[in-house]
Design a protein that fits this description.
single chain, 2 domains, six-stranded mixed sheet, 22 helices, 61% helix
Amino acid sequence: MHFRSRSEPHSGPPISVFKALPEVWALIRPRRALLALGFVLMVINRITGLVLPASTKFLVDDVIGKHRAAMLMPLVGVVLISTMVQGLTSFALTQTLSKAAQRLIAELRSKVQEHVGRLPLQYFDSNKVGTLVSRIMTDVEGVRNLVGTGLIDFVGGLLTAAIAFVVLVRISPVMTAIAFGFLLVFGVALRKAFQTIRPIFRERGKINAEVTGRLTESLGGVRVVKGYHAEAREHEVFAVGLDRLLQNVFKTLTATSLLGLSSAMLMGVVGAIVMFLGSRQILAGKLTLGGFFTYTMFLGYLAAPLFQVVGIGTQITEALAGLERTREVLNEHPEDEDAKRTQFLGRIEGAVEFRDVTFGYTPEKTVLHEVSFRASPGTLTALVGSSGSGKSTIISLLAAFHAPQAGQVLIDGVDLSTVRLESYRSQLGVVLQDSFLFDGTIRENVAFSRPHASEAQIVEACRIARVDEFADTFAEGYDTIIGERGVKLSGGQRQRLSIARAILADPRILILDEATSSLDSESEAIIQSGLAYLMRGRTTFVIAHRLSTIRKADQILVVEVGRIVERGMHSALLMQEGRYHDLYTRQHGLEENLFLAPGEGDKR
């Protein structure tokens, strides 16, 4: 068993470094003044860093070789001042660019999270929660190397190398030509190496997202895991994922280690050549001892960028791989971006009409077939039928989670596919059988539907839903933390809280996925009063699992195999003795038999 990604959004092959430049520039552009300051500080930092090696020639040849003692103190003073300037500019670079990079990471995370939140529901159906969390939190992390000191250090190394190259040519053109030839060959090899390493980093991001996704699921379903004594199996699955991640890391470590080995060997060869040629030139009187010391020190500055490429280049490669994955998410189209969605709804009456609606989650399989019905404002419509018949799909279309492939869903006569979703969903309320609660306080969960509600409005909603009855028993009252998904509350308490949330929202259209079917009779009796208040004057749709709760519905729609096969009120449908009569009598008989002793049902 191993991790599988349900759907990895992909927008093509990995982009090259040069093709990525426009995206990198888009990140840098708002901070170009700050980056320019960073470059100025970097130039000062690098130039002052060259004072010490440059002073070696004067120290050896003039102060020591020619006994010019008067030059010693000025030379030492220049070195001290340049060292202090170098230290100050290094500090300023770190403070300025590192903080800017961290600020960019925070902004990118915010941007990606906002974008993901606006994506259509089918995107979430095909991507694990943990994968999306990894996209938001991890993939943007490497961007700091594009804006922070990583990129500046790399460019600074190139600048230092250019200055060092000029100095080396002036001291010994022959040695410089040979050394530069070796370094050039190594640079070409590095470029090829990073083209190989980059896909490995991209794969690491994918594996990390899958591992995080499975871990999130496992921790979220800890009660199921423990209930089936599956801790060992979950550990095994997680261990397999970790091993895949580890093998990927090993690949990158092996590659970067080989690069480091190659660079070290290269410097050894170049150093030996310089030592041989330099010694011959000194013996021939063509090079001074101070010039040779200065040459060897500046040769290090020429080679330094190649060593930096191994470290910083790897980080930038990882950053670009993360940028690609971030780009893929941002290229997904938000559900409200449809050019047809131009109409803003004012306060709606709540008239709903499905007109010959056909829909399928995939083109190959149609779930609903030409479904048509009307619901007048303030009425109660119940949807019944066997599991998989299409009831939840009708509700999903009503909530605009999906759009019909054919036909129309009309709200007060307006085609829902042309409506700006925020103007519609702000008038929609949903109470599910397993209502989702956040790890916050009772007050925060109730106010989630209407964040700017007053304390009096929150308290009133809680009173109607009878949340106050259990909230007052806690020491912290409405400020009690209820835990992740409301684990510190009972099933009935969670449902009352979700009903209070819907009451506070004051929706015009209400959707109930049989909020009481899994509760005991006492809890159901308490919650029914809150639901009765909530449904009053609102167009309500109920997915009914317990048919005895919908006897007073204004219309009952019997859905089978994606079609409405019967419709009408409870009594009329029973008299027809069709599908609804069959469902009702079966369930009613089953409920009665639950209270009979074994064998009594057969005697009857």
